[in-house]
């Protein structure tokens, strides 16, 4: 009942204010805007009273819920959010690792002297080296020289090709050459 009394009081005050403003402001463009603003104020007053009533009704309905019941629920929500973040973070690092391996594989195909069959990438997942996702090691798995296809003195050129490939990959990813290793597959 108090809300209804308050609403009637506000509406009466707004109506009196509207009458005085119309008397003070000359007729024309400005009076239309004043009427519009006062109309909006009346709408706001009615809506405010209605939402106040609605809010009190909801508070009475859900008043029996206590803060102690909602805190454990919010903690489980936070735990679930943290777990989902960790899962998404691990998935993103895996995708990043796979994408880097594909990029490096494509880069190695530019060197026709050495045939790389597989690339493995290790990343810093804990952030111990300063940044999470920083390259720790790149391993290139290379096929051995095919027997009978190398001429005398060509073995040195193959070793140079492997070292050149290591340098190229290291320079491309701006890492130390010691990070890039190769393993000859048997």
Features:
186 residues, mainly alpha, Alpha-Beta Plaits, 2 domains, 4 helices, elongated
Strand and helix layout:
Blueprint: H1 2-24, H2 29-61, H3 67-108, E1 116-123, E2 135-142, H4 154-172, E3 180-184
Parallel strand pairs: 2-3
Antiparallel strand pairs: 1-2
Q: Can you summarize this structure?
A:
The chain has 186 residues and is mainly α. The chain folds into two domains: 2-64; 85-184, Alpha-Beta Plaits (2-Layer Sandwich).
Q: Indicate the overall shape.
A: elongated
Spatial extent as radius of gyration:
37 Å
Number of domains: 2
Order of strands across the biggest sheet?
A: 1-2-3
Q: How many helical elements? A: 4
Distance between the termini: 91 Å
The largest pleated sheet is described as:
3 strands, mixed
| Beta-strand fraction estimate | 5-15%
Low-pLDDT residue intervals, each spanning 5 or more residues:
147-155
Q: What's the CATH topology label of the largest domain? A: Alpha-Beta Plaits
Architecture of the largest domain, CATH level 2? 2-Layer Sandwich
Give the class-level CATH name of the largest domain: Alpha Beta
Provide mean pLDDT, rounded: 78
Helix amount = 55-70%
